Amino acid sequence: MRKPLITLMLCFATAAGVAAERSDQSLTPVEGRPPAPELDLLDMEGVRHRMADYRGKVVIVNFWATWCPPCREEMPSMQRAYEQLREEGIEMLAVNIGENEDIIFAFTANYPVEFPLLLDLDSATIQNWPVRGLPTTFVVDPQGRLAYRAIGGRAWDDPDLLAPVRRLKD
Amino acid sequence: MTRLRLAAALALGAGIALMGAARGEAVWGVNGDTGLSFWHWRSDSVSVELVQRLPDQTRAFFLGRGFSAEAADAIGLGCVFQTIFKNTAPKGASTTLEYHLGDWRVRTEGQTRPPKLKEVWDQQWKEMGVSQAARIAFRWSLLPTSQRFDAGDYNWGMTSFGLAPGTRFDLDLVWHRDGKRETGRLANVECPRDLQL
């Protein structure tokens, strides 16, 4: 009798903890909304992606690597967010820094995602973006400008975190 | 499960003689699973944590990213810590934090110097003929040399202090909160010993 009660209390405490952690998340508005730097990369399927291809859409651009713990941690929540956002016309791109297809392919066995994983093999692209550490994520508005940024991982399926992203469509 | 073996060196402002010293606490502990020590500075909105990385962990990481055995050994024995810097200000707070690793000071045996920055290592890798791909991996694996964080932002990355395994040192941390310089100290930090895994 006592054990189920303790289990219930633990579940409640865990859920409350997760909710508390999530509700404290934020995105930082990028001052002046400068134009997003160029991006012209192939994904794992060999498909070319350029920022210009996404004009008129909100795009989340994430920079990551497989060895980066917070990058790995946020990847499942990015997939869950993408499952919602793609229905709303919001795109997501994840730019891997300096790793080849074999390493990323092995990684996706444990972290399956459906959004494009782009290959910045020589890190030439990331050097044009205002990124100093991984992960860093930008939200690009329909005019192709940097609207928000997040340094470090986030739980991307948090509705509070995604609210300003969704508002960019308006 | 992480546990604290000792309660810790509580700085709480007193005992820190540096100008602009922030009120906070420095905690030392040992991860019960790995046996590795960590040192953690916490104050209002600021969290800096250093976790030991065994030389073999670091050697293996860089060998897997194209480093020669000689180069991997150099960084492996370079007193490397996994380092996490966070702006823990609550959502909506306007607190910004900025740091530059070149401002931090390593104090050991009467000597004072900054950490060994990735730019210094990179020059060494060039001279040793480390490949461009391996140098890219190295550059992004280390904590950024300087960074600005808004509320909720953080970074993980390795830091290196260029001291021999087992060396003890004090580390003076420096950051700027909304443009104002603040400091904290992690005392008696130990470079990871060269234990074979």
How would you characterize the overall build of this protein?
Chain A is built from 4 helices and 8 strands. A 6-stranded mixed beta sheet of chain A has the order 1-8-7-4-5-6, with helices on one face. Chain B has one domain. In chain B, 19% of the residues lie in helices and 38% in strands. The N terminus of chain B is likely disordered. The interface between A and B is medium-sized, with 23 and 25 residues.
CATH architecture annotation of chain A: 3-Layer(aba) Sandwich
Class of secondary structure makeup of chain B? alpha+beta
Distance between the termini of chain B: 20 Å
Protein chains sharing the most extensive interface: A-B, 23 and 25 residues
CATH topology (fold) name of chain A: Glutaredoxin
Secondary-structure element string of chain A: HEEEEHEHEEEH
- The largest beta-sheet of chain A arranges its strands as 1-8-7-4-5-6
Oligomer: heterodimer
Low-confidence stretches of chain B: 1-19
What value does the Rg of chain A take, in angstroms? 17 Å
- On the 0 to 100 scale, the average pLDDT of chain A is 89
Q: Note the overall shape of chain B.
A: globular
Q: Would you report the number of β strands of chain B?
A: 12
Number of helices of chain A: 4
Provide the spatial order of strands within the biggest beta sheet of chain B.
Answer: 1-2-3-4-5-10
Range of helix content of chain A: 25-40%
Main sheet record of chain B: 6 strands, antiparallel
How many structural domains are formed by the residues of chain A?
A: 1
